[in-house]
């Protein structure tokens, strides 16, 4: 910049050259945005070419009408960047963020998600289904209208209309009518979308797990809520924590609303019974089982009791939330749990009966169930949770601390939504997997669940004690090999009294991993940061290489195979896990819940505080009387034994493994999950592992295989830019990376830089 | 018998002898200052007393029992609390959590001691929920001392409490050390700020390259020409 010389030459010229520079900068920015759009168009396009036509992919991606969309994206990015300072105040207005979230959700549903599992229609995506459904005569006309028999863009147009209405309501602050109309329409459209999908499903009569319409409904409802928020806020510039405010107003209400939506869809739209070529809602299921010897209770349930139970729970939970009545809350919670058990019993009853009487190729109890029953179960769980929250809720005034100053008050405020969220997570962990496709169930069991468990373990070492461990997968390997040994699947056999089932191997795996953790830790824990990382990395490799090469003991590179699945025989309890993937999910869930409960206690115990102190400052920790060596060893050992449990589970679930399952890459992945989720935060580590194991599998359908890692990299980069402390940051790290410099109190605000990780 | 007796200790960093036979003692209820230039061995001496380092030769006795080689986390149970050099508060813990960590050797922090620390340092009371990393240097030093007091010390080891602080704050801190001493806590203080330290101390020792070269009462040392020349920057007349 040569502004100085310009100024000396004279004001007029300086102003002119400033304007010229600004124009050039704008032009550069525009060119950059358009180039970005162009690259994006190439990336999201046909990838394959042919031998004699190298330009094929290029032409397909660039010289096609779709380039217009990308040009629009480029222009939009340019406008957004240029006018960002003017956009920011708008973003903080009431309703803007829910509107954006809702619109984005609907767009995702319309573009990425499956609307049917039937493979006849272009992958089952909305884009393929829409024109086909619009022209199929056998589908209910109301549903066809949604898909656009009148105008080929109808669903997109609907979205545009409601977004425009709500946006206008936000823009013109005093018109609450616009907000109500937009919001109301959005909710109607959401229900319409749901209805249209169920019409298609009953037309196709194909067992269906698709989530498209459900997600669209959620998106539309979010838009609707934002419209109503706008209408009620009368232009107050405040959208901070909409759910927080609802929660403050009536705790339990967000849960009641969610339970109502899910339960209604489950009862009135989703399929309850779907054997081969069949998709029966609850009503049809009821008639189908008429006179098949279904017990009177189950028949009554399908005919009318289900509705009664659901609505009774809904009304009770709603009333309890509204009145903040403790006793009513308990009643709602109790009724919810009872209804849930009854629902599960009936589902087991009729699916078992169907299998017995070879009903349309029904395969067994708990099989061939549609999503409806599980959705109702989820809804009842959420409603019961709402009742419980109301019953336990104490009216405590949180002292209004200045933002960012009081860490304790901030913690209290942050955790207020926690219980409600926990209820939702529990409900979906219990009842979402049965409605997922076989593919996702397998992913859940073999990828997501295991890595969540590993991330919880590593979080103790890396997040809490601050020791960077790059050989974590070694303990996982030790757990797996322990299982293989104890079940007699290695060349070296255990003494006969030690031959165990996999679950009985868990205590041994824990002990062996504890010992291994201490053995590795004792000589190396004097090292810090990078040095420790390198030593642990070496340890991980040593374990793998030893397993690979000591063939007489470990069977070398062929690994262990035929490891039996887990089984339990204790008194009346007699469970054997077999081919059903879902069973393993619930087993894993039990592990995760136990570990989370234990570690949650641990974090706030003396040991947890000692870990925090060591991570903050080792010398000071020593000076306050902490035996640093012992405490660090404990972190290592506890993390290692968690990993060992995951190893036992892995070995017996997968049945066979080789040393190649325990490569360095996996160790690094687990570290990445913990960092991505938020180091030192238990929910963060779990969320990080879940998101980053889910994402590649999700992208499998969306992008070309060779581009997958690139997209994942892009997500991680974005994350590190916008949320450097992780997905769900720990309180302390959030303060370090975001809050410390915003203090008004002290002369100096410097914080000593952390020592590595 | 003195509360702390250091008898001819030698400490080595690898081949380098940092302390070449240092002896001194601290009586119950005294304030004793260790003076010396950079690298004289003051901090090493204190770290050895607090158990963070072990002497190669020599003995340290506390209350008549040998404590050389006993690790720091055990020594604290006998009432030796160390305020390390450079304050070293836990930056991402609140002031309250920092103080509670000081009482880590007890099952539960003593409420009375906490209240007393708050009386001594009203500034900490004002900032009780704030992260320690956001405090000023002086406040951090107060917190570091407060944290050590939470461990109910008999012997308080202070390592350069005046480092990097404004003169006014240094004054305040020395006032508080005097107050703490008045309550019966024995203090062994390492300082470069010789004038302040000797004005406070009953007795002082001057270290030079790992050896005690001079000792005496605070007043005598303050008057000593050599001390005035070396540490108070005065020309000898």
From TrEMBL, chain B:
Keywords: Amino-acid transport, ATP-binding, Nucleotide-binding, Transport. Residues 4-234 form the ABC transporter domain. Transmembrane segments: none annotated. This is ABC transporter ATP-binding protein. SUPFAM superfamilies: P-loop containing nucleoside triphosphate hydrolases. Belongs to the ABC transporter superfamily. SMART domains: AAA. InterPro entries: AAA+_ATPase, ABC_branched_ATPase_LivF/BraG, ABC_transporter-like_ATP-bd, ABC_transporter-like_CS, BCAA_Transport_ATP-bd_LivF, P-loop_NTPase. Pfam families: ABC_tran. The keyword Metal-binding does not apply. One of its GO terms (molecular function) is branched-chain amino acid transmembrane transporter activity. GO terms for biological process: L-amino acid transport.
């Amino acid at each position: 910049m040569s502004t100085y010389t310009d100024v000396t030459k004279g004001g007029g010229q300086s102003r002119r050259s400033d304007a010229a520079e600004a124009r050039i900068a704008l032009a550069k920015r525009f060119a950059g945005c358009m180039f970005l759009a162009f690259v994006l168009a190439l990336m999201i396009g046909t990838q394959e070419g042919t031998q004699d036509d190298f330009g094929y992919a290029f032409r397909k991606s660039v010289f096609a009408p779709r380039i217009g969309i990308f040009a629009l994206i480029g222009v939009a990015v340019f406008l957004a960047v240029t006018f960002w300072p003017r956009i920011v105040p708008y973003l903080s207005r009431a309703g803007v963020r829910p509107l954006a979230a809702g619109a984005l959700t609907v767009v995702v549903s319309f573009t990425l998600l499956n609307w049917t599992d039937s493979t006849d229609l272009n992958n089952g995506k909305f884009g393929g289904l829409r024109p086909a459904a619009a022209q199929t005569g056998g589908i209910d006309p109301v549903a066809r209208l949604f898909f656009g028999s009148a105008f080929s863009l109808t669903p997109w147009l609907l979205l545009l209309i409601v977004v425009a209405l709500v946006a206008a309501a936000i823009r013109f602050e005093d018109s609450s009518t616009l907000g109500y109309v937009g919001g109301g329409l959005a909710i109607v459209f959401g229900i319409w979308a749901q209805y249209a999908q169920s019409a298609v499903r009953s037309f196709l009569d194909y067992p269906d797990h698709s989530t498209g319409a459900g997600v669209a409904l959620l998106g539309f409802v979010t838009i609707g809520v934002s419209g109503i928020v706008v209408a009620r806020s009368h232009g107050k510039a405040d959208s901070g924590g909409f759910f927080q405010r609802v929660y403050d107003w009536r705790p339990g209400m967000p849960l009641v609303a969610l339970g109502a939506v899910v339960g209604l869809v489950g009862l009135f739209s989703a399929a309850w019974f779907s054997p081969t070529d069949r998709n029966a809602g609850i009503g049809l299921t009821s008639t189908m089982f008429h006179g098949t010897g279904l017990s009177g209770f189950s028949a009554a349930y399908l005919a009318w009791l289900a509705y009664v139970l659901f609505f009774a729970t809904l009304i009770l939970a709603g009333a309890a939330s509204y009145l903040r009545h403790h006793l009513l809350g308990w009643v709602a919670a109790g009724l919810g749990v009872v209804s849930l058990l009854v629902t599960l019993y009936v589902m087991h009853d009729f699916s078992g009966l169907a299998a017995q009487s070879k009903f349309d190729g029904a395969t067994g109890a708990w099989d061939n169930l549609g999503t409806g029953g599980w959705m109702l179960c989820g809804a009842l769980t959420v409603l019961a949770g709402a009742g419980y929250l109301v019953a336990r809720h104490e009216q405590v005034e949180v002292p209004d601390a200045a933002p960012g100053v009081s860490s304790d008050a901030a913690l209290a405020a942050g955790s207020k939504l926690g219980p409600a969220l926990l209820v939702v997570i529990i409900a979906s962990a219990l009842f979402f997997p049965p409605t997922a496709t076989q593919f996702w169930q397998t992913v859940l069991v073999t990828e997501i669940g295991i890595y969540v468990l590993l991330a919880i373990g590593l979080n103790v070492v890396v997040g809490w004690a601050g020791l960077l461990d790059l050989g974590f997968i070694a303990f996982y390997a030790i757990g797996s090999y322990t299982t293989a040994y104890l079940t007699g699947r290695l060349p070296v056999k255990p003494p006969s009294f030690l031959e165990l089932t996999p679950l009985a191997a868990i205590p041994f795996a824990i002990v062996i991993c504890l010992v291994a953790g201490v053995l590795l830790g004792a000589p190396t824990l004097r090292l810090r940061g990078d040095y420790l990382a390198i030593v642990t990395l070496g340890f991980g490799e040593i374990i793998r290489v030893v397993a690979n090469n000591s063939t007489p003991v470990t069977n070398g590179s062929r690994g262990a195979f035929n490891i039996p699945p887990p089984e339990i025989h204790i008194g009346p309890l007699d469970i054997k896990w077999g081919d059903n993937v879902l069973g393993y999910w619930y087993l894993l869930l039990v592990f995760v819940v136990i570990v989370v409960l234990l570690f949650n206690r641990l974090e706030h115990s003396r040991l947890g505080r000692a870990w925090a102190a060591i991570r903050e400052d080792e010398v000071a920790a020593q000076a306050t009387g902490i035996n640093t060596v012992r405490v660090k060893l404990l972190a290592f050992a506890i993390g290692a034994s968690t990993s060992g449990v995951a190893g036992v589970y892995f070995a017996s679930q997968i049945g066979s493994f080789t040393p190649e399952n325990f490569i360095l890459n996996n160790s690094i992945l687990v570290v990445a999950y913990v960092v991505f989720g938020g180091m030192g935060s238990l929910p963060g580590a779990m969320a990080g592992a879940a998101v980053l194991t889910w994402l590649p599998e999700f992208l499998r359908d969306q992008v070309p295989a060779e581009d997958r890692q690139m997209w994942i990299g892009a997500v991680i980069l974005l994350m590190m830019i916008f949320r450097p402390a992780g997905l769900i940051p720990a309180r302390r790290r959030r303060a370090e990376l975001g809050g410390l410099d915003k203090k008004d109190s002290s002369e100096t605000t410097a914080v000593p830089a952390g020592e590595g990780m | 018998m003195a509360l702390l007796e250091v008898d001819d200790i030698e400490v080595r960093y690898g081949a380098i002898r940092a302390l070449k036979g240092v002896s001194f003692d601290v009586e119950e209820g005294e304030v004793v200052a260790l003076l010396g230039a950079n690298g004289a061995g003051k901090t090493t001496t204190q770290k050895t007393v607090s158990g963070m380092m072990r002497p190669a030769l020599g003995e340290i006795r506390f209350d008549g029992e040998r404590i050389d080689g006993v690790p720091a986390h055990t020594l604290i149970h006998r009432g030796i609390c160390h305020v390390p050099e450079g304050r070293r508060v836990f930056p991402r813990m609140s002031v309250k959590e920092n103080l509670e960590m000081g009482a880590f050797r007890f099952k539960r922090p003593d409420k009375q001691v906490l209240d007393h620390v708050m009386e001594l340092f009203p500034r900490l009371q004002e900032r009780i929920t704030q992260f320690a990393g956001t405090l000023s240097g002086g406040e951090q030093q107060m917190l570091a001392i407060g944290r050590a007091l939470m461990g109910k010390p008999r012997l308080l080891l202070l390592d350069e409490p005046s480092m990097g602080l404004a003169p006014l704050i240094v004054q305040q801190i020395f006032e508080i050390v005097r107050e703490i001493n008045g309550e019966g806590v024995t203090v062994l203080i390492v300082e470069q700020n010789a004038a302040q330290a000797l004005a406070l101390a009953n007795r002082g020792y001057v270290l030079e390259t790992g050896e005690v070269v001079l000792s005496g009462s605070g007043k005598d040392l303050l008057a000593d020409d050599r001390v005035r020349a070396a540490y108070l920057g005065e020309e000898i007349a």
